[in-house]
Amino acid sequence: MSIAARDIHFAYHGRPVLAGASLALAAGERVCLLGANGAGKSTLLRILLGLQRPDRGSVTVDGTALAGWHRRQLARRVAYVPQVHVAPFPYTVRQVALMGRLPATGLLKAPGAADRACVGDILEHLGIAHLAERAYTEISGGERQLTLIARALAQEALLLVMDEPLAGLDYGNQVRLLERLEGLTGEGYGVLMTTHDPNQPLTGSQRVALLIDGRIAADGHPHEVLTPEAIHRLYGVRVELLHTADGRRLAFRPAGRRAAC
Ligand SMILES: Nc1ncnc2c1ncn2[C@@H]1O[C@H](COP(=O)(O)OP(=O)(O)OP(=O)(O)O)[C@@H](O)[C@H]1O
Q1: 37 alpha carbon to ligand 1 midpoint, in Å?
Q2: Is the CB of 45 under 6 A from ligand 1?
Q3: What is the DSSP letter of 135?
Q4: I need a labelling partner for 148 at 20 to 30 A (CA). Which of 130, 181, 211, 244 fits?
Q5: Quick one: which atom of ligand 1 is closest to the CA of 44?
């Protein structure tokens, strides 16, 4: 299963944002999309999901143009995990996750026993079963992110598109969420996520794509794509790459800084 955007052009009110961007995601891989603020990452994700129509270019799911998919069929292949938001009503975690069953049950039917069992299994699998009856408005940002992932998994989609899933999470929750995402890709899910931290794809991502000047300027293994030169092109800052004693890539840090003892 795969989703692919090819040669996407898009402008808001005549102001170009995307100018020939191409990006694909297949089941079983984790891809990080990096780009400066305003580069067009969220716009590209929305176009991939069919939430915004490109001015030019095509998006296909399993080789078929988005327009050829029924909305409900598509929802069972590709799921969107938005940035953590506060829900207007205090739905419980279980109710939020159950919303993911809508494409399967239809709007007019209440979820049945099989839907409830499916959601129960997913909450268990993601380690948040103990939160099932808690209000979504009264749990932490990390727990909300996991609840939104549970909703996406309940959709039965194999491809997950996530807009800055790590934003606002403390370090512990970032590590735990990344471990969960790694587990999901190991189970065959495809994960496309945006991030602002160039260190994050150094662990666990199979691919990283750089969105610069409206195009994907590089797309490949993080070790090949993420260089100090690439970080300079992306963000306009000079960095150096730190290595472990045995030569593995560890992290970027601003160039010229002395290490703390
Ligand atoms: N609805 C809109 N109407 C007009 N301009 C928009 C709209 N949404 C986004 N833009 C503009 O399009 C550009 C790309 O926005 P987008 O949100 O896709 O970037 P981004 O890379 O996700 O940014 P960030 O990292 O800051 O979230 C920005 O300059 C933004 O101001």
Answers
A1: 8
A2: no
A3: B
A4: 211
A5: 18
Atom 11, ligand 1: residue with shortest CA distance: 38
The model's pLDDT over 142-198, given as tens digits with 9 standing for 90+, comes to 889 889 989 999 998 999 999 998 887 788 878 888 888 888 899 999 999 999 988
| Number of residues that this document lists for the chain | 261
Both tokens assigned to 61: 């799911």
Give dist(CA 102, CA 192) in Å, integer. 23
**Domain locations along the chain:** 1-77+158-169+190-256, 78-156
Evaluate if residue 204 carries a pLDDT over 80. no
Tokens (6 digits) for 116: 């409830």
Q: Which residues of 178-187 are buried (b: 16+ CB within 10 A; e: fewer)?
A: bebbeebbee
Q: How many CB atoms lie within 10 A of CB 37?
A: 7
pTM for this model (two decimals):
0.90
- Quick: pLDDT tens for 31-81: 999 999 999 999 999 999 999 999 999 999 999 999 899 988 898 899 998
Ligand 1 center to residue 33 CA distance, Å?
A: 15
What is the topology classification, in CATH, of domain 1-77+158-169+190-256? Rossmann fold (3.40.50)
ipTM above 0.95, yes or no: yes
> In the chain, what's the furthest Cα-to-Cα distance?
63
Ramachandran quadrant class, 28 (left: phi over 0; alpha: psi -120 to 50; beta: rest): left
Cβ neighbours around 192 below 10 Å, total: 26
With a 6 Å cutoff on the Cβ, whether 14 touches ligand 1 is: no
Q: Is 42 in the pocket of ligand 1 (CB under 6 A)?
A: yes
Closest ligand 1 atom to the C-alpha of 164?
27
